[in-house]
């Protein structure tokens, strides 16, 4: 290191006239240079670094030098008198490259600073003491086989801890120590490349390469390090499949099952993975028609399976041309040839003693029901397929339930019944017939036989009904009660055409008649007017029904008809009693509304009766029977405008009064129905009928009417009424349940009048 001296200079100026010298304040300052110290010093004495010196120092020891900062007093020591600095320890640049220290000069006597504190640096100078290293080694690399010359494999990089800015200590050069002549390395970049072309993985797959890195640019005396690279050649499809031999033989018995494997064949491929995948195929029609081949993925074997049954008696040998082809072909290596190979397989069919063979796979037979035991059903036929044509015997599978109904002749295969069969019980029977050779009874074959039981007309028809037939009390003569149909257990040919009639041996039914609709249905029609469930609520109606079979069968069914008060809801009729019960489930509010309706109606009736009595009392002149009195008067009155005298309506004749009646053919507007109104009216009517002491207040008395047909005419100024015709009250039935009881009362009155 060049020594530097911090100096202190003194400036003196002489006067021009030779007078005494004038001393100026001296200007003190440090003169700096950079200190250097070599690393790794191993000498017996401390390594000299440099010297500090102030120009205030006269050499008399009055100046004391002190040092502070990095390593002061431990690594770096200063002589307080001379200012010499030494390194007391060996330094390592790779651990610390420089040190920052502070120097100061003091007056030894006064300890005053002669110079301000100054900073300087001691740099550790590098030497080549670190060899190159490969921190990521050893390495693993791959390269495809058959690669071209100079194909890049891997780039490696070494590191050197020495100073790259000083000398050649960190300048690295790469070289190959092992791996030639297959690989090479670039000296500057460290890139490893192939040194040979078309290296074959099948010949050699793994290579070990050792690379050296040397500093000092590779010169003598430089330090070096090495690493290992394990290089593997990866596979490409550069080898075709090959069969080990060209001709193979295989023995297959004729009893081999269709779809099962009968043999295997394999072609070898030196490649790996998908490059060695092989697809097998049978390329000649003789073999492809009878056999198939598939590839087993794990073993890459060709599995040969049977497509059709073999028959030794028909064909004893087969020749198969089998081809094995790579499924993944690399076009870069097409120049090597086609990637496939062929082999010939000769299959010999072996003769096997086979079980008998039936003429067909499934038999379908039929027999009429009720046929006597022993009736022939049909026959099955089986034969020995072998060349010796052994006799065959037949028997039924005893494990099946239907075997008790049939038997089979063991020599001819003829099947017969063991008892009459009923089609309505079981219409189809399934049985299994087994056949075996007389010479080899252990060899069995089976065939399924289905027996259909044919129908005969042996079941009479019946009326189909789900329950009682409802007859409404308001039914009229000719009214349809219900349409009935019939059912028959026999099949369509015999059981689905029906005709109906009432029994001819019974007297004519006065209540109902039956009409055959000629479409396998019949209509029940009422013959009389009105029914009463209180008088009779149940009627029985026997009906005879015939089927259309040969011969025709008939059956008699008795229907039960129940009489009910009905209310009409479209086509659906419901008994009034049931409807009332169903209404019992109404809410409390609805029940209260019904009760209020009854109370209000009663109040209206009472008020109406009271008013009628008050109006009629002025006309009564005696306590005697009112029906024997005539009201007399001699007052012309005030004419039609006099509305206070009396109700002139009572004097009008029936023909005029008829105009004020409600239209009977028009249904009045419905009001909320009170269930007990009809009962109230019935009670009041009965009381009036039982009272013989006076007329009913609602009767109409007509006077001043002398009758009709008199030559002199009527003496009354009022119009002559027409004769009242007999009324038909059937329209009340259509007005709903509110007028049902009124209709019944009129009907009873009509009946009494007729009687």
Automatic annotation (TrEMBL):
Principal place of residence: other
Cross-referenced Gene3D superfamilies: Cadherins, TCF3-CBD (Catenin binding domain)
Record key words, sorted: Calcium, Cell adhesion, Cell junction, Cell membrane, Glycoprotein, Membrane, Metal-binding, Repeat, Signal, Transmembrane, Transmembrane helix
Matching InterPro entries: Cadherin, Cadherin-like_dom, Cadherin-like_sf, Cadherin_CS, Cadherin_Y-type_LIR, Catenin-bd_sf
Polar residues: bias regions: 709-725
GO MF: beta-catenin binding; cadherin binding; calcium ion binding
Region (Disordered), start-end ranges: 1-23, 689-725
Span of domain Cadherin: 54-134, 135-243, 244-358, 359-463, 463-580
SMART domains named in the record: CA (SM00112)
CDD domains named in the record: Cadherin_repeat
Lipid bilayer topology: Single-pass type I membrane protein
Subcellular location: Cell junction, Adherens junction; Cell membrane
Transmembrane regions listed in the UniProt entry: 590-611
Pfam families for the chain: CADH_Y-type_LIR, Cadherin
Any GO BP: morphogenesis of an epithelium
GO cellular component, one term: catenin complex
PROSITE patterns xref list: CADHERIN_1, CADHERIN_2
Task of the protein: Cadherins are calcium-dependent cell adhesion proteins.
PANTHER family, A to Z: CADHERIN-18, CADHERIN-23
Protein known as: Cadherin-12
Species per Swiss-Prot/TrEMBL record: Cyclopterus lumpus (Lumpsucker)
Gene (name only): LOC117749468
């Amino acid at each position: 290191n060049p020594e530097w001296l911090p100096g202190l200079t003194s400036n003196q100026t002489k006067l021009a006239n030779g007078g005494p010298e004038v001393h100026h304040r001296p200007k003190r300052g440090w003169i700096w240079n950079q200190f250097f110290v070599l690393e790794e010093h191993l000498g017996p004495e401390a390594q000299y670094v440099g010297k500090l010196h102030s120009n205030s120092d006269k050499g008399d020891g009055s100046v004391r030098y002190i040092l502070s900062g990095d390593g002061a007093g431990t690594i770096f020591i200063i002589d307080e008198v001379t200012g010499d600095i030494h390194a007391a320890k060996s330094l390592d640049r790779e651990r610390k490259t420089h040190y920052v220290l502070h120097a100061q000069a003091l007056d030894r006597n006064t300890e005053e600073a002669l110079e301000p504190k100054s900073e300087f640096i001691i740099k550790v100078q590098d030497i080549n003491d670190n060899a190159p290293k490969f921190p990521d080694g050893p390495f693993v690399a791959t390269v495809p086989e058959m690669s071209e010359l100079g194909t890049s494999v891997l780039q490696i990089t070494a590191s050197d801890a020495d100073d790259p800015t000083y000398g050649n200590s960190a300048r690295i050069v790469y070289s190959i120590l092992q791996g030639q002549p297959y690989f090479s390395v670039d000296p500057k970049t460290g890139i490893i490349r192939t040194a040979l072309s078309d290296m074959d993985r099948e010949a050699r797959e793994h290579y070990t390469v050792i690379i050296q890195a040397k500093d000092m640019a590779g010169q003598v005396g430089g330090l070096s390090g090495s690493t290992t690279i394990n290089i593997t050649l990866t596979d490409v499809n550069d080898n075709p499949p090959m069969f080990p031999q060209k001709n193979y033989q295989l023995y297959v018995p004729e009893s081999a099952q269709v779809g099962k494997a009968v043999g295997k064949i394999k072609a070898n491929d030196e490649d790996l993975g998908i490059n060695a995948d092989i697809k097998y195929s049978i390329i000649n029609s003789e073999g492809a028609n009878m056999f198939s081949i598939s590839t087993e993925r794990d073993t890459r074997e060709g599995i040969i399976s049977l497509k059709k049954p073999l028959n030794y008696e028909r064909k004893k040998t087969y020749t198969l041309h089998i081809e094995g082809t790579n499924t993944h072909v690399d076009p870069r290596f097409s120049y090597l040839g086609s990637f496939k190979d062929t082999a010939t397989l000769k299959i010999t069919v072996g003769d096997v003693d086979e079980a008998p063979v039936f003429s067909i796979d499934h038999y379908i037979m039929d027999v009429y029901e009720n046929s006597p035991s022993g009736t022939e059903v049909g026959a099955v036929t089986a034969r020995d397929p072998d060349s010796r044509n052994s006799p065959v015997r037949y028997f039924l599978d005893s494990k099946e339930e239907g075997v008790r109904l049939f038997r089979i002749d063991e020599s001819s295969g003829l099947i017969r019944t063991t008892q009459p069969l009923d089609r309505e019980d079981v219409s189809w029977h399934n049985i299994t017939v087994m056949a075996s050779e007389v010479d080899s009874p252990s060899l069995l074959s089976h065939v399924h036989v289905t027996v259909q039981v044919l129908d005969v007309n042996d079941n009479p028809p019946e009326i189909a009904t789900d329950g009682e037939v409802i007859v409404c009390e308001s039914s009229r003569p000719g009214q349809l009660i219900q349409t009935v149909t019939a059912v028959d257990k026999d099949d369509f040919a015999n059981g689905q055409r029906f005709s109906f009639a009432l029994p001819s041996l019974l007297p004519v039914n006065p209540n109902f008649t039956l009409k055959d609709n000629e479409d396998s249905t019949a209509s029940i029609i009422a013959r009389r007017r009105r029914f009463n469930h209180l008088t009779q609520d149940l009627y029985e109606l026997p009906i005879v029904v015939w089927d259309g079979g040969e011969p025709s069968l008939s059956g008699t069914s008795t229907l039960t008809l129940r009489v009910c008060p009905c209310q009409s809801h479209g086509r659906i009729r419901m008994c009034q009693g049931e409807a009332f019960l169903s209404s019992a489930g109404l809410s409390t509010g609805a029940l209260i509304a019904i009760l209020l309706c009854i109370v209000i109606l009663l109040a209206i009736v009472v008020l109406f009766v009271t008013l009628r009595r008050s109006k009629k009392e002025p006309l009564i002149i005696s306590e005697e029977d009112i029906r024997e009195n005539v009201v007399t008067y001699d007052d012309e009155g005030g004419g039609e405008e006099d509305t206070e005298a009396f109700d002139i309506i009572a004097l009008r004749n029936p023909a005029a009064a008829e105009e004020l009646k409600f239209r009977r053919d028009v249904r009045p507007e419905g009001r909320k129905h009170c269930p007990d109104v009809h009962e109230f009216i019935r009670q009041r009517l009965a009381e009036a009928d039982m009272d013989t002491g006076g007329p009913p207040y609602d009767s109409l008395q007509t006077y001043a009417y002398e009758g009709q047909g008199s030559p002199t005419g009527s003496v009354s100024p009022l119009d002559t009424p027409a004769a009242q015709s007999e009324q038909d009250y059937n329209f009340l039935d259509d007005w709903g349940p509110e007028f049902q009881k009124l209709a019944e009362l009129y009907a009873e009155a009509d009946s009494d009048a007729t009687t």
